[in-house]
Amino acid sequence: MLYHLIEFLKQHVDFPGMGLFRYISVRSIFSVIIALLVSLIAGKYIIARLKKNQITDTAVKTGENGKSGTPTMGGIIIILSLLVAVFLLCDLTNLYVQLLIVSTLWLAGIGLLDDLLKLRRKSGKEDNKFMRFFLRFQRKDHDGMKGQVKIYGQVGLGLIIGLALFMSDRAVIVEMSPLSKEAESTEQVEAPEYTRHVKSTKTTIPFLKDNLFDYAWLTPLTGEAGQKAGWVIYILVAIFIVTAVSNGTNLTDGRDGLATGTVAIAGITLGVLAYLSGNIIYARYLNIMYIPNSGEMVVFMSALIGALIGFLWYNTYPAQVFMGDVGSLTLGGIVAVFALMIRVELLLLILCGVFLAESLSVIIQRFWYKHTRIRKTKELIEKGEYTPGDVVPGERIFVRAPLHDHYIFDRSKVEGKIRLKDPEEPIAEPKVVVRFWIISILLAVLTIITLKIR
After folding, report:
1. pTM of this prediction?
2. Is residue 136 part of a domain?
3. Rounded distance, CA 340 to CA 86, Å?
4. Triad 403, 404, 409: Cα angle to 5°
5. Is 448 within 8 Å of 206 (Cβ atoms)?
6. Which H/E stretch holds residue 204?
7. Does 38 fall in a domain?
């Protein structure tokens, strides 16, 4: 709103310095500062309100690691700070910014409902009509929202993003002719010549010289029919990316500052890539896709980074507040949607390697535990040593899943065999968190240098 107000005033008043707001770099700096300040100031008040209303995570009620009574749903701090800076400094007519705002509110709503259902307590009072409507989405064990309902919400967002990029004439790329060998060798970039704005299902693929991949190539059709079929595949990929990254971030949010730091690192990297893709000179030199108007997303991502840094002030070990699903689901969704819109979703395999490892650890752990439990039960039945109702423990690959808990949790408290022997002793939580941050930084650097390593 401040951006649009200044743009309006410039038509009537010539005030020194007003032209600075045209620059993405200037607005990005202000965006970081405003989001950071809002997060720090509003965070203290919100945490106090959460404590007063006893909004604490049920998993922490047990007193694990001395964190009993720590409030949750702190993701509200991040979302509030983000949106304040975005509405003040972003061009709200930009399609990409609009989709990011929709993604933020959509997943924040899903996460908020999930947290509220987890926190619901039985009382003598009867639930009102509003609450009874949402109780149909609650799991039978009262531990939050039904898994399939959450998946439906994530799939719905992926569908919205995919269809918006397909249907909007503002979501285009610009095809440019490659640099001459002479210009490339001297690193001199002249004003680029480009052909036309086109609707395309192309995306960036790492480590290849011609680093563009078209989803239309996966279909047997050609021409206009092939392009439409390519958009179908692209929309399915969008649904998968949004769901996978959002859930991966949710799983990573298990220790103080872990998800906050890793998302901030990924956000900085995506912001750099968006800036390069939105600048025709840099895109031409680096031989990457030029996406008109995508540079405006840098202002949005800067606001997110500022909000995360401010939240980390309260979320670092020992945490004064947890972000809850309202924060983790939203952050993962923003990362996924952002990557989709600048066509680097395949780079998330590298950039979001921590999220990928966390998700795979849960899948592997559950599969192996179930498989070995069934196998041992059959062996006991064959030996005649099994009694109906006996609980047969399975084997584990990790001490505990997700992966970060494997290093923190005491293996002496876990029944059954554990395949991975290291670490023999638990590692302090802050050390594990910082090491995961370091890995995230290394993956971010690798993601950036894929622009030149082909």
Report:
1. 0.90
2. yes
3. 20
4. 100
5. no
6. strand 202-204
7. yes
Q: Which amino acid, residue 1?
A: M
Collapsing DSSP to helix, strand or coil, 131 comes out as helix
Could you tell me the residue range of the domain that residue 364 belongs to? 360-423
Which residue from 85, 3, 89, 106 is spatially nearest to 41, judged by alpha carbons?
85
Which amino acid makes up residue 427? I
DSSP per-residue codes, 56-79: B-TTTTT-GGG-TT-B--THHHHH
- Greater confidence (179 vs 89) lies with 89
Region 181-208: what's the mean pLDDT?
64
pLDDT digits (tens, 9 = 90+) for 100-110: 999 999 999 99
3-state helix, strand, coil in the chain (%, to 5): 65, 5, 30
Crossing angle between the packed helical segments 223-252 and 147-167, to the nearest 10 degrees = 140
Alpha helices in 143-222 (DSSP H): 147-167, 181-186
342 and 410 belong to one structural domain: no
Report the C-alpha gap between 431 and 438 in whole angstroms: 11
Bigger pLDDT: 377 vs 209: 377
* Domain total in the chain: 2
The DSSP code sequence of 171-182 is --EEEEPPPPHH
What confidence tens digit (pLDDT) does each residue in 291-338 have? Answer: 999 999 999 999 999 999 999 999 999 899 999 999 999 999 999 999
> Quick one: 265 and 141 in the same domain?
yes
Residue found under tokens 């980390």: 312
The token pair at 187 is 């690193």
Indicate if 316 and 376 belong to the same structural domain.
no
